[in-house]
Structures are given as C-alpha cells and as structure tokens.
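User: quick one, sequence for these tokens?
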C-alpha cells in the first residue's frame, strides 16, 4: 500500500471574492455537469476539473482500485493567490483550509491535509500556521517562488521558524516559474520544463539562503523530485570545496543540507530516480503522483516497479515510511 504525498484538491465551490481587489482574478467554479467544472480565473477556463478534486467517495473508490493507502491533499497550486492583498489571501486561504478539513474528516485514516497561508506576507503566514495546526492539518503547501521571490530569501525565515516550532510539514510545489519567456514552443512547456527548473532554484535557495542551517529539523519536501536540483547539487558541492565565500556562508557541504530535504518520486523514469536515491538517500524520497490531473503518474509509485532490485525495506520506506515521517504521522 502506498502513501502519496503529492495530490491536489479543488473545492466544489469558491467563496465570493468579487468585491475584493483583483475582481475576476479570484477563482470561481463554473459547473459543466454533476461531475465536472471549469475553474474560471480572469474570465477564462484555467482548468477543467472532475469531482475527484472534491469528492471523498470518488477519491476513495480510485485509491482502492489502485492500492493507495493515503493521500496527502494540498490545494491546486494556482489557488495559492500570492498576487492578492495579504489579508484577502488569508481569508481565501482560510476558506480553502476549512474545505480541505471537511474532505479529510470524511476519511481521516485515508486523507491528510496540507493547507495554505499568505506567503506574500511572511509574518502573517507564520501567524496563520497556528490556525492551520488547530484545524488538524499537518502542514502547508507553498510555491517554489512567492511572487518572484525565492523561498530561501531571508524574509521567509519567520515562516520556516514557526513551521519548525509547530512541527508542521512544508510541501514545495512548482509555481509560476520565472524565465518562461525563454521557453520556445507550445505554451505547455511552462509545465514540462519551467516547473522542474523553478523547483531546482527553490531547493537550492533553501540551502544557499541558510534556511536549512538555521532550522535543521523543519520538514520540507520538494515536488517533482526536486526538478533539476539533483544535477545542480554536485556542482554546488564542488563550489563549496573551492570557494571560501561559500564555506563562510555554509558551515557544512551543500549535500549535508540536501539530505535534510524530502523529494517526491514524480520523475516518470527509473534512471533519475536511481540517481536521486544515490544522491540524497533512500530515506528522503516518498511517492508523489500529482493526482488527479492529466500529468499524474498512474498508479502512484509506478516508477518504483521499474526498480526490481530495491531491497524490501527500501521499497517499504519509499512507498510508506518516509511519507509518514514527512507528514508527522510516523
């Protein structure tokens, strides 16, 4: 049985936010039929979603078919609303968190919730974490950048300090990647190329910005296997060995900090997964699928089946144990 740390939630309906700054940029649900709806943002269909996004029964049905023991459920990233005024984003986030709790409450042995906070105002985000925990959510999802600011920026230290103090998990999801103007080809390349590159910047910034040095026990997981981070880390290690400036900033080699991060297994191919296991250790990876969207791996953890030489204990860690430890459930 598999614990999937990377699945998403969209509520069946959104709160009315039309009188807040931003107007129709706030999402609304336009229903197509009993099982489908369009998430409308700025007057266009951002994504057509199905009831797996909000229905506990539909999720459980598919989880049972695919042998999935538990979903860690976080908001569809576009709903993080970092563009909004912080107080408005807080109110919208509270609604989202409450709706997520309602989903979790229908099957608490199968669902675990990761909520959202207004990261555009780090002090407010830190203050909201206590309410997140009071609701019974085990952590939060944040973007790989916050309105263009890397998550390793010192301004976010209060947030990570509070997450560590409260024992809450932080799931970093690729979000509005920077440099999209450099992608040549169809618009979908933003997802296929931009997302993993932005995740690499995010993971690296947690190390070079000193977040993991200051908060060594905060539990942070990076989506999409950390994207391109695995290819950057050896070069960063070499830089640390030859650069006095890097050694002055980081008391330990970058790989020491990288092995404090968690990564999901959503890399679609056994070759990068083998490398990632070798690089950061089998203890730092957990299954992720991106359920229920089109880019998902189906079933969750499928790529592990292409590693037949995994020891039973390692397979158990990758499918279940590491996820439970990241979520604070183990």
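Assistant:
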């Amino acid at each position: 049985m598999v614990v999937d740390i990377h699945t998403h939630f969209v509520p069946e309906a959104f709160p009315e936010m039309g009188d807040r700054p931003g107007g129709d940029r706030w999402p609304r649900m336009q229903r197509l039929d009993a099982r489908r709806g369009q998430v409308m943002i700025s007057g266009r269909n951002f994504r057509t979603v199905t009831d797996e996004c909000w229905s506990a029964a539909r999720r459980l049905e598919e989880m049972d078919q695919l042998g999935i023991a538990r979903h860690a459920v976080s908001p569809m990233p576009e709903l993080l609303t970092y563009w909004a005024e912080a107080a408005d984003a807080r109110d919208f986030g509270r609604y989202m968190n409450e709706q997520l709790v309602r989903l979790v409450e229908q099957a608490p042995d199968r669902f675990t919730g990761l909520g959202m906070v207004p990261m555009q105002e780090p002090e407010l985000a830190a203050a909201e974490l206590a309410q997140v925990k009071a609701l019974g959510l085990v952590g939060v999802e944040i973007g790989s950048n916050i309105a263009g600011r890397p998550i390793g920026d010192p301004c976010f230290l209060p947030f990570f300090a509070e997450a560590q103090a409260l024992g809450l998990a932080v799931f970093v999801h690729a979000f509005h990647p920077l440099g999209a103007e450099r992608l040549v080809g169809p618009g979908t390349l933003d997802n296929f190329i931009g997302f993993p590159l932005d995740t690499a910047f995010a993971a690296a910034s947690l190390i070079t910005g000193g977040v993991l040095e200051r908060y060594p026990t905060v539990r942070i997981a990076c989506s999409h296997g950390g994207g391109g981070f695995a290819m950057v880390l050896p070069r960063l290690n070499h830089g640390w060995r030859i650069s006095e400036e890097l050694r002055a900033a980081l008391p330990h080699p970058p790989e020491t900090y990288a092995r404090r991060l968690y990564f999901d297994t959503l890399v679609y191919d056994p070759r990068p997964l083998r490398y990632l296991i070798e690089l950061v250790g089998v203890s730092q990876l957990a299954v992720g699928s991106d359920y229920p969207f089109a880019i998902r791996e189906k079933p969750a953890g499928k790529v592990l089946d292409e590693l037949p030489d995994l020891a039973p204990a390692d397979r158990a860690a990758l499918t279940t144990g590491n996820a439970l430890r990241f979520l604070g459930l183990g």
